[in-house]
Amino acid sequence: MNNSAPVAARTRGRPRGNPPTRESIVSAARALFLERGYRGTTLRAVAGAAGVDPALIAYHFGSKIACSRT
Question: CB within 8 A of 51, min separation 6: which ones?
Answer without folding.
Answer: 24
